[in-house]
Amino acid sequence: MTTFTILELRTGRAEPYGPKGEPSAINKEPIDRSLLATADGLEGDEQGDRRHHGGLDKALHAYAVVHYETWARELPDAADRFAPGGFGENLVVDGVTEHDLCLGDRFQTGKALVELSQSRQPCWKLNLRFNRSDMARRVQATGRTGWYFRVLNPGVIAAGAEAHLIARPNAEWPLSRVWRLLYYDMLDRDALGSFLRVQGLPDRWRRLAERRLASGQVEDWNSRIGTPR
Question: Does the CA dihedral 88-67-146-169 come out positive or negative?
Fold first, then answer.
């Protein structure tokens, strides 16, 4: 069964970020003690924009540590920026990537039970984070996005702990397939219909799929991945 290791826990405080000083907690620091994970997120963590970050479907953000080496190799001029925490994640994880995980996967770590709710949809804050105007677009194009967990059962999470897969209700929907539907086969009507039947699909993604089916058009990404002037 699929297992991953939590290498680091990270939390951050909301602070002004970007050209308009919008609040963001993307700067997350490692915490050297165990933390309680609840439906609201990790103990002591904040989100600057609750409309797009945090909430029940985005309680914990995880990122695969193996991706940092790949990014540094591809973008050597920014290699020093590609280190754990670079993507503002709460959980730095080892042993899995987006190709190993499916929507709805449930993992147990200690008494905490978490459920994979969705992939991360990158936004323009990553452009500033890595000092590249196209970084959000690159993350989207590669599928190295990270993902979010819901917390179904609160519990203490510790760095160094393992999380074990205990249920996989949507084995036909690995995150790699979600990525392809969102950004490449965007108007595949059969796939969109199947996507809408996924158990536990977040409301935001349900509305996205319904709009694509109804309109035959893809939503505009520019406000999400283009840095505001």
Answer: negative
